[in-house]
């Protein structure tokens, strides 16, 4: 089995740097609560916050809506944030927007917490699979309908450690 490279380490590095500069500009003079959605976004989140020249408060949430490669349509919160985001700028950080279920559900949940603002940054977006309306504020890469792995993304818990985004071409 091979895992062909879709987006190289260098392409990711360059794009994350650009997004970091954009976010820094957009929130100039403000504080930011960055909420990484575990587990998939942990690598992107770690790289992205190091490109921010802002006061950042980092939180993580762990949710699951997936078994194998098909969405169950159920979002379970396994780990919640431990800070009050009322009146704060929240930036949700996702690995990939696929059907959009996870992030549209999380966005609604955060909007109900009376924050100053809620925005979304995602590494990847697969428009071919979208079923739920999602406003993406910061997108690194739009991709075709492939199941992808690496740079934090997994297939059944494997391949998160790959430094690039690859195509999983095994059986799904
Ligand atoms: P959504 O709720 O359908 O948008 O799914 C989002 C979640 O499904 C992501 O946060 C990933 O954890 C997982 N996911 C969707 N597509 C892929 C993929 O191609 N590779 C790895 N994980 C994926």
UniProtKB/TrEMBL annotation:
Keywords for this protein: Cytoplasm, Glycosyltransferase, Magnesium, Metal-binding, Nucleotide-binding, Purine salvage, Transferase
CDD domains per the UniProt record, alphabetical: PRTases_typeI (cd06223)
Biochemical pathway: Purine metabolism; IMP biosynthesis via salvage pathway; IMP from hypoxanthine: step 1/1
Domain Phosphoribosyltransferase: 10-155
Needed cofactors: Mg(2+)
Alphabetical GO biological process terms: GMP salvage; guanine salvage; hypoxanthine metabolic process; IMP salvage; purine ribonucleoside salvage
InterPro entries: HGPRT, Hxn_phspho_trans, PRTase-like, PRTase_dom
Similarity comment: Belongs to the purine/pyrimidine phosphoribosyltransferase family.
Catalytic activity annotation: IMP + diphosphate = hypoxanthine + 5-phospho-alpha-D-ribose 1-diphosphate; GMP + diphosphate = guanine + 5-phospho-alpha-D-ribose 1-diphosphate
UniProt xrefs under NCBIfam families: HGPRTase
The keyword Cytoplasm appears for this protein: yes
A Pfam cross-reference name: Pribosyltran
Enzyme Commission number: 2.4.2.8
Name of the protein described by the UniProt record: Hypoxanthine phosphoribosyltransferase
Gene Ontology MF term list: guanine phosphoribosyltransferase activity; hypoxanthine phosphoribosyltransferase activity; magnesium ion binding; nucleotide binding
GO CC terms of this entry: cytosol
Subcellular localization: Cytoplasm
């Amino acid at each position: 089995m091979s895992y062909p490279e879709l987006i190289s380490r260098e392409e990711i590095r360059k794009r994350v740097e650009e997004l970091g500069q954009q976010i820094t500009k957009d929130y100039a003079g403000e504080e930011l609560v960055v909420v990484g959605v575990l587990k998939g976004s942990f690598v992107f989140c770690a790289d992205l916050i190091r490109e921010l020249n802002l006061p950042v408060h980092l939180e993580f949430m762990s949710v699951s809506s997936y078994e194998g490669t098909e969405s169950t349509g159920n979002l379970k919160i396994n780990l919640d944030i431990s800070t009050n985001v009322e009146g704060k700028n929240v930036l949700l950080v996702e690995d990939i927007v696929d059907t959009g279920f996870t992030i549209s559900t999380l966005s609604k949940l955060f909007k109900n917490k009376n924050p100053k603002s809620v925005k979304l940054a995602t590494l990847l977006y697969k428009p071919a699979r979208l079923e739920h309306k999602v406003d993406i504020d910061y997108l690194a890469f739009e991709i075709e309908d492939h199941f992808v792995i690496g740079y934090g993304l997994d297939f059944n818990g494997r391949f998160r450690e790959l430094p690039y985004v690859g195509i999983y071409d095994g059986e799904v």
